[in-house]
Amino acid sequence: MLELETAQLAAFATEIRAHVRGLDAAFAGNLAYWSADP
């Protein structure tokens, strides 16, 4: 049982990291948009 929960927690951590990377990319894109000269 503990092994299953540990595996699920690891998978959840991986999923969260992927979402945070997506937010980072979106934030960087937003900064690039607003930093560009018209």
UniProtKB/TrEMBL annotation:
Protein name according to UniProt: Uncharacterized protein
